[in-house]
Amino acid sequence: MKRIVSFILCAVMLVSALAIVGCGETKTLKFGAGSYTTVSASNATADKAGAAEASVTAAAVLIDGNGKIVKCVIDCMQNKVQYTNAGVAVANESFKTKKELGDDYNMVTYGGAVAEWFEQVAVFENLVVGKTLDEVKALVVDGDKGTDAVISAGCTITIVEFVKAIEKAVASAKDTKATDVKLGMYTSQETANATVDKNGSNKVETTIFAAAVDANGKIANCTIDCAQVDFTFDTTGKSTFDTTAEVKTKYELGDDYNMVT
Predict the structure, then answer these.
(1) Percent of the chain with pLDDT over 90
(2) CA distance linking residue 142 with residue 153, whole number of Å
(3) 147 neighbors 127 (Cβ within 8 angstroms)
(4) Rounded to an integer, what distance in angstroms lies between the CA atom of residue 231 and that of residue 14?
């Protein structure tokens, strides 16, 4: 009889335990990635080459069921190119992200900054954890820098590009079983000199790869996108590139990228 009672008690306890687990709330995370590009271009002169820049800021995020950021990774590929007053495109040896440059970005040495870019962006990445998108957007004040709290924490650089990239990342977020995010960027370049019949070109393509990885380091989700900017100029090195036009990634362009047409 005692055995029967024991079996019954064990069965009741097991069912109760399973019921508790079944009623437990499953926390689902979401993974998203996005980028934001700013551009500038100047004309070549007799003394100075024309210069153009496409600065691609990318962000990858994990957010919880309440829309709060659990993890954020940010990097920036600052693509600088040149062309001469004879309409000749200058090829770069290589491109590196600001994080890859590390101390060699030289914000401290030449800009008098309180810390290098990779150190300041690490501060910002930590600050946004636990915040919703609206709370992150509220961190930007006049001059595109952060609030006093952001600056006091050690991020004194402009943050508006970070926030715009995060906004796109959150908008693209989808369910994931991942526990961490990774971000990589690579830039390739194509050049062509100007002729009397055709503008010269110094084209840079930044490919952005973001991955959500699980506890075993395996990729659970990933996104690939590309920001392509074609800086054009004439035979005198005068820029013919429209710096006022919005730069969209190939994914954002969709059918308008016109690979089929």
Answers:
(1) 87
(2) 18
(3) no
(4) 68
Res. 5: pLDDT tops 80: no
Q: Contact 61/170 with Cβ under 8 angstroms?
A: yes
The tokens describing 233, both together, are 């100029």
**0.85 cut: is pTM over it?**
yes
Phi, psi of 199 (to 5 degrees): -65, 150
Which tens digits make up the pLDDT trace of 192-205? Answer: 999 999 999 999 99
Of the candidates 32, 68, 61, 50, which has an alpha carbon nearest to the alpha carbon of residue 193?
A: 50
Query: Smallest Cα–Cα separation from 118: which of 102, 131, 129, 130?
Result: 102
Task: Give me the residue spans of the domains in the chain.
Answer: 28-238
Say which DSSP state 17 is in: H
Hey, what are 183's tokens? 């971000």
